[in-house]
């Protein structure tokens, strides 16, 4: 009985350690996601102006290509 009880305690401790490790990994993932979001916001602000110019130029280019080849691009 004593041996079995000891085994059970060890198993429980191992499970707790695994859970703690998983929680740490989740926290790291959350931090990474936050960093990515910040980068995306900064990038979106600078890319917005670029996008407006690209849309005008890209729109004309697509129209020319689709008109010339007869296929939608």
Fold and architecture overview:
With 73 residues, the protein is mostly helical. It has a domain at 31-73. The chain has one helix spanning 2-69. 93% of the residues lie in helices and 0% in strands. The protein is built from 1 helix and no strands. This is Armadillo/beta-catenin-like repeat-containing protein, putative. Residues 36-73 are annotated as: Disordered.
Keywords:
single chain; 73 residues; mainly alpha; 1 helix; rod-shaped
Question: What topology does this entry show?
Answer:
Elements lengths: L1 H68 L4
What is the count of helical runs? Answer: 1
- What percentage of amino acids are in beta strands? under 5%
Give the low-pLDDT segments. none
Quaternary status: single chain
Rg over CA atoms: 28 Å
Number of strands: 0
Biggest sheet details: none
**Portion in helices:** over 70%
Q: Structural class of the helix and strand makeup?
A: mainly alpha
Region (Disordered): 36-73
Protein name: Armadillo/beta-catenin-like repeat-containing protein, putative
Gist of the model:
The chain is mainly α and 73 residues long.
């Amino acid at each position: 009985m004593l041996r079995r009880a000891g085994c059970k305690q060890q198993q429980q401790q191992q499970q707790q350690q695994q859970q703690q490790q998983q929680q740490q990994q989740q926290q790291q993932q959350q931090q990474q996601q936050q960093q990515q979001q910040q980068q995306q916001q900064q990038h979106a602000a600078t890319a917005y102006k670029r996008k407006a110019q690209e849309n005008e130029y890209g729109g004309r280019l697509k129209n020319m290509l689709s008109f010339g080849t007869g296929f939608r691009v």
